[in-house]
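Work package 3, deliverable 3.1, input record:
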Amino acid sequence: MKDDLTVMMLSWEFPPRVIGGISPHVFFLSKSLAKQGVKVYVVTCDFPDAPAHEVIDGVEVYRIDSYKNPSPDFATWVYLMNLNMQKETAALTRKIGNKIDLLHCHDWLVANAGIGLKHVFRKPLLVTMHSTEIGRRDGLHNDTEKMIHETEAWLTYEAWKVVCCSDYMISHVKWAFGLPNDKLVMVPNGVNTSIYNTAPEDLKDFRNKFALPEEKIVLFVGRLVYEKGIHILINAVPKVLEKVNAKFIIVGSGYMKEQLLNIVRSMNLEHKVLFEGFLDEQTLLKLQQCADVSVVPSLFEPFGIVALEAMAAKSPVVASDTGGLSEIIQHDVTGVKVYPNNPDSLAWGISKVLLDDSYRHRIGENAYKKVLEIYDWEKIAQQTRRIYEGVLGEYSNSFWA
Amino acid sequence: MRVIIFSWEYPPRVVGKLAEYVKALSTQLVGNGVEVNVVTYDDSTTGTAKESTGVQTIRVSNPVRTHIGVLTWVLTLNQEVERAAANLYYQTKKQIDLMDVFDWHFISAAVTLKNGLGIPFVYSVESLEDHRSQGLSTPYNMAIKSIEWLGFYEAEKISVKSEWMRDEIVRIYKVPQEKIVVVSAGSNSWIKEILDLYSIVSGVLKAR
């Protein structure tokens, strides 16, 4: 075992900058790796009022000046930001005497920087593919989507190992980019159970801010975009209300928001569906603990961290039987699986959970146990460290070493 | 002395005037005992080639085929430029004295190689986005101007072919005038001026 293993980790988001699931993933992964004795540098985009350099539980975090001029479009911004990230990471690596063993990228958003640095310093590159363009868009429909897809293919081609967080994602990535089996490795995503620690009696007043005592709380957390299936949930709302009195709380934002609001208005259900936008972390954590059911109606879901968070908060999960969600949830044991893209099936699942108190309790407890058993960050960091050591073993026999 | 020249055009790929100029310059440099490696773009042939002039060319192609504009095309091509330059660096046991970068296209590679490996570079300006776009400042033009600005900031020296261009760079980008060297391209003293410039810049490396 190498006792001074050092990894340079690149991610376009890291707290307090939170856009999607990569930010919390890199946050917990890097901290847990540090606990396993790995020296981790995280290079990420800057954020208002966040320091350019700080040390968080042993993790060296550097926030670079991301490209801030108006950009022609999002994809071009990504490549412009990568220019800065690559330059700053190169300077940092030189400053610490080239003492890095590996580069670890998260998604295509840092592909250019990771690939360039790999060749400049001749260090092995790993990538975690959290998602793919072809999966997000359900196909490649224009040049931007093709370009991103080809960038992802290039990144997986250059990577020594490609990490995915579910078996579903392994087979998807293998198909999408034609990768050999021995390049792919599965490490599940993790979740932190200790943050859901508000005492039940303290949640009462909090709950009253969102719902009447006689209303059950149905919670959705996620970006309001097509792939998350939020429109399926909205269509299921009247079907659920026929059977049980409930309040639907929607946390998150996205391009579908206006459209969804219009549907809710046209159904005269504005008093039953609350759009909360983004919430601060403490409020969200409490809300997840209060939720009588957490709904994950995704159409495409490489992993499904929201389902795992709900499980950690002991909130029963109703999820569509797709992607990583299919693996996380065991039907009738740790949650309820419903047909994807089917409002009737979703309404059935939600009603089933809300109408049966003992069932609800049972799957909530089972799910919590499962989380502790498999999706624990310490175990995930140990697995990741073993992957790093395996790659370094192979690398040491290469002419780059 | 060993130099890597970056240019997005080099014969037989000729887009504007730059290709022939870079070819003449590298040939002359080789004649003066400089080892010249030209890293350039080629969409049909790749690999290293030693030309009859003694200039080594490395033609890289874009790893991403589909693009939505010149910017994304250029920015992904840069990693291949870095790969080619880094290979030279390691193959020559890290003995690269400097890079000479023509126009904005490969500034990204140059600044990363400078910051990561400590190789200084000259930024040779053939034209400026402000002139090409006739003062337009759409996000697209701004991005190219910001890359040019980064080049001016990170370069050890800037080389131009006229006093007019020097003054324009000072005016538009607020670059200190003493950072800019005017070379009399094509004249008898041309190569001597370039060699003097190269030794000043590579001297920076030795001083580090």
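Chain A has two domains: 6-190+376-395, 193-374.
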